[in-house]
Design a protein that fits this description.
This is Spore coat protein M. The chain has about 130 residues and is mainly beta. The chain is built from 2 helices and 8 strands, in the order αβββββαβββ.
Amino acid sequence: MGKKKKDCLFHVDGFEEWMDQFCSDSCSNFSFPNQIHIDLCETEQEYILETDVPNVTEQNVVIKKMETGLNICILHKNISLQRNIPLPTTIIYKKMLACLENGFLAIHISKNEVANKHEEKVLFQIEN
């Protein structure tokens, strides 16, 4: 008997394929300790990409928006770690904001807010 898909409040074209690719990419990172391991969470308002980056500051992290997804580059102690994260085209144009606190990097991707057309990098949240 086939699985019945649930009705979903938020529909994103290509989301299931994105999740399949994301999970297979995450699993392949177990054999490469110098790769950036990313976890994905979802709330009603946003998607959240999370990773541990101990002893790294915002100045050492560059998150670029590409046509096909995000490129995360971390420079620390003369070592460069990089990860390309494929995203559905409908998501790449959404507003994104990064937070780095206590060695924990979170990239928040809004489901509703559209980004500035000329944003090439994901900016870090400014603490008040």
